[in-house]
Amino acid sequence: MQPVSLAFFWHQHQPYYPNDLTGENEFPWVRLHGTKDYWGMARHIQEVPEFRCTINLVPSLLVQLLKYTDGGGSDRHLDVSRMPADGLSLADATYLLDHFFMANGDSMIRPSPRYHELFLKRKVGTDSAEAGLSRFSLRDLRDLQVWSNLAWMHPILFEVDTDLRAFRLKGQSYSEADKTWLLDKQAEVLRQIIPMHRELAKGGQIELTTTPFYHPILPLLWDKRLARQAMPDCELPKHLDSYREDAVEHLRRAVAFHEELFGEKPRGMWPSEGSVAQEIIGAIADVGIEWIATDEEILVASTGGRVSRDSHGHQRHPELLYRPWLAADGDKQLQMVFRDKGLSDLIGFQYQRADDVLAAMDMLGRIEAIGQATESANGGRPTLVPIILDGENCWEYYRDGGVTFLRTLYHEAARRGSVNPVRIGDHLREHPATDRIDRLFAGSWISHNFAIWIGHHEDRTAWDLLHDAREHLKQKTSEVSKTSEVSADRGSLPDKLAQAWQELFIAEGSDWFWWYGPEFGSAQDKLFDRLFRTHLQNIYSLLGEPAPAILNEPIKRNGHRRLHTLPTGFLPVKVDGRATFFEWISAGIYEAGSERGTMAQTTEGLIRRIHLGFDKSRLLLRVDTASRARDDFERAGIDELQIRFVEPEGFELSITGFGEPSLSVTVTGDDKSAGEAAIGQIFELGIALSALDAQAGSVLKFFVEVFSKGQSNDRVPSETTIELTVPPPDFEHVMWQV
After folding, report:
1. Which of 169, 422, 461, 516 is most enclosed, with most CB atoms within 10 A?
2. Beta bridge mates, 613
3. CA dist., res. 662 & res. 409, Å (int)
4. Which distant-in-sequence residues (6+ apart) come within 8 Å of 135 by Cβ?
5. Where are the domains of the chain?
């Protein structure tokens, strides 16, 4: 068997956070991900000189990195970090307590005893920042300033920098001078990121690619009606004018900026959110791009379903996915590769709960199996397996920041003769596409549609406000070009007018629309909403005019998205594994899916839905799978289901005996049965509240996880918890009154 061409493609992206008119920046993510993921991902590749891959660097990210390293840029988090602890105002101190625990609790806070101590003292989710402030000494506040930055340093930095390692070992009682030293070290690490990528590209280890400048959804700029290819009944914004000249400008600027920064034009591109359409092929090819990537579902839709997966996730005609394709518009053409969403989601969402070494070996085994399944159908051409995902957002959920997993994966991939890690552009030059797509389907990497960015009334409101600002800007541009005999070409406009166009391009970015609607949410939804409207307001301000009053009104109306509904009555459940509808009619429901704000999981796990509620003495749970639960559990090899409680702390339920006549339910440290469980059409569980030391008013926070031979198969919710309050005996009477 010839080696499989393994094409890792890491997408590195942040939206444009700064307000260039005021210099304000509410978000620290470029800086914090910089010292952890952008530095760390490059370092991992440096460690294995034989390894090859592709990295996509979005211009809006690179511009912000340069602001920190060359332009004296800052952000609110950094400003508060720099302040002397004894000089913090009340507003600064409450900001500190509200925003300096923005890190994964299990992998980034709990492993550091001092940071975890401060987290427990804060009582996140129980007390307000002002209430918690009375428990914090000056020493506590200063240590929190340090740890919130220190936790976002990549683990390998502590291996290679003895001073930084000693600094972390100190652990607590940091001085103001210590803190200044750390923030200077942070800036030093940020300055290394772009040169590291430049050297890796120059040495042939990575291919650097780009994305339209401020990460817009190109097909929607081109024609919003393209949303109806995948969603024929989709309601559209009121204004449907094409902004194709803006799309071209995002492309032109991205290529020019990339060439200026890295010394050569990019050959490849990840269109923002993997968004493609037949109509934009020519514009992308015109700027010199030779190949693009998107999701496998676009190939499915573009080939009439010839490439698809069955209900168990197995590929039909896998050889058609694992090869490049040609898409053309007249004499302009692009080569295309399509991400294996299953393998990509394993890294993004599943392997974080597995043994790191076993996970890496499992990944390579799956890749080798793909090669074996496709070799005979590929006519002697090597199988190409593209694994494409964010390069920054998943690693905070791994125990050690992904270090063991990536080290094992990279070293093994480079060592094995059955796998050949490649840069995508190299593979396409040696084995160019011969299969042709007749018409490229209009869609994105999420469900091959644009629902996230145009499918909700909040999205459409944002598009119409953007349109109004753009129309006003077009009119002013026309007036200026007539009165001053200045060309309307945006490259020759007066400074303020050119800056106003830049504010518009920033507002066209996909990220603002990502947070509108019900699909994704975070504690910072309101900030994203405000910043989008600020960019539109800045257009009017730069033109010397007042912004429309409507831009002061929030677009986001529904607040932070609740992960699940709540029970509305006691449940008359008989635990027998039968799907008896009326037993669960008053239950709360959690629909399994991605609750991670910055990423989306597009493959479905074993657990599809959880019903939850109470009777007067028990917590009751029901787990639904894709079909019959007993059969699905058996197919997946499930031998244990755990209910792990974050609150009350320390409790863990273990359900075993799958495949046997009856299931066993035990609580941590207690051998006797704590309840009853059954599996048939559904899985049902009843656990005595007394076994959890819970009573009316007690808060329960938990997640459900299933295991096969000690390895996690699925966890729901994947990162957060389900939260319920034990109801009082008169619960139903109260709900009836409501």
Report:
1. 516
2. 620
3. 40
4. 121, 122
5. 456-552, 581-737
**Dihedral angle over CA of 117, 121, 122, 127, nearest 10:** 150
Across 60-81, b (16+ Cβ under 10 Å) vs e yields bbbbbbebbbeeebbbbbbebb
Question: In the structure encoding, which two tokens stand for residue 388, read together?
Answer: 């494409």
CATH (one of 3.30.1380, 1.20.120, 1.25.10, 1.20.1430) for 456-552: 1.20.1430
Query: Is the Cβ–Cβ distance between 273 and 216 less than 8 Å?
Result: no
Please give the structure tokens belonging to residue 236. 């559209």
Q: Report pLDDT digits (tens) over 157-191.
A: 999 999 999 999 999 999 999 999 999 999 999 99
The token pair that represents 139 in the structure block: 């020493």
Q: What pLDDT, on a 0 to 100 scale, did the predictor assign at position 594?
A: 53
Calculate ∠ Cα 276-279-282, nearest 5°. 95
The whole-number pLDDT of residue 511 equals 95
Decide: helix, strand or coil at residue 221: helix
Does the structure show a pLDDT above 60 at 596?
no
Cis previous bond, 195, omega within 30: no
- Identify the CA nearest to 642 among candidates 677, 693, 689: 677
Assign 3-class secondary structure to 186-211: HHHHHHHHHHHHHHHHHCCCEEEEEC
DSSP letters for 31-93:
HHHIIIIIHHHHHHHHH-TT--EEEEE-HHHHHHHHHHHHS----HHHHHHHS-GGG--HHHH
CATH topology classification for 581-737 = Immunoglobulin-like (2.60.40)
d(CA 150, CA 81): 11
∠ Cα 322 390 427 (to 5°): 35
Residue 50 is predicted with a pLDDT of: 97
Confidence of residue 12 (pLDDT cuts 50, 70, 90): very high
Helix (H, G, I), strand (E, B) or coil at 700: strand
- Look at phi and psi of residue 292 and say left if phi exceeds 0, alpha if psi is from -120 to 50, else beta: beta
